[in-house]
């Protein structure tokens, strides 16, 4: 065993520094209520932006804040389909021309076989 090894101490198990002279950041507790009746608190930094929902620690459902603060509804964009993206780049007459070209190529390739 090496001369400098500390017996009985695993790597990363704990620090040997004391907490003297350390100032912890200001904190605040925020309470949440789950739809199944679970109540829990989460600690946040004082300057943190507080969420309106948090996952319940016991059942995994989304819990809402106990103080009644509700978040604003997010406007969801409709899902863009392939056709929507194609229409952003091409007009209908352009698409008709491309279709006609591709059909012509297919018809010509069928004649070869």
TrEMBL record:
Q: Where does Zn(2+) bind?
A: 34, 38, 56, 59
Query: InterPro entries given for it?
Result: RbpA_sf (IPR038638), RNApol-bd_RbpA (IPR025182)
- Swiss-Prot/TrEMBL cofactor(s): Zn(2+)
- Signal sequence, renumbered to the chain: none
Q: Which Pfam families match?
A: RbpA
Q: How and how many cofactors are bound, per the record note?
A: Bind 1 Zn(2+) per subunit.
Q: Does the keyword Metal-binding apply?
A: yes
User: What are the record keywords, sorted?
Assistant: Metal-binding, Transcription, Transcription regulation, Zinc
The UniProt family comment states: Belongs to the RNA polymerase-binding protein RbpA family.
Q: How does it assemble?
A: Forms a complex with the RNAP catalytic core and with free principal sigma factors.
Q: What does this protein do?
A: Binds to RNA polymerase (RNAP), stimulating transcription from principal, but not alternative sigma factor promoters.
This protein is called: RNA polymerase-binding protein RbpA
């Amino acid at each position: 065993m090496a001369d400098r090894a500390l017996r009985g101490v695993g790597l990363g198990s704990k620090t040997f520094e004391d907490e003297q002279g350390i100032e912890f950041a200001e904190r605040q507790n925020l309470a949440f209520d789950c739809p199944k009746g679970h109540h829990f608190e989460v600690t946040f930094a004082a300057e943190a932006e507080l969420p309106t929902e948090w996952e319940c620690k016991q059942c995994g459902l989304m819990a809402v804040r106990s103080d009644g603060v509700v978040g604003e509804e997010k406007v969801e964009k409709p899902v863009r389909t392939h056709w929507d993206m194609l229409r952003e780049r091409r007009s209908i007459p352009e698409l008709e021309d491309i279709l006609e070209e591709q059909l012509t190529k297919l018809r010509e390739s069928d004649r070869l076989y």
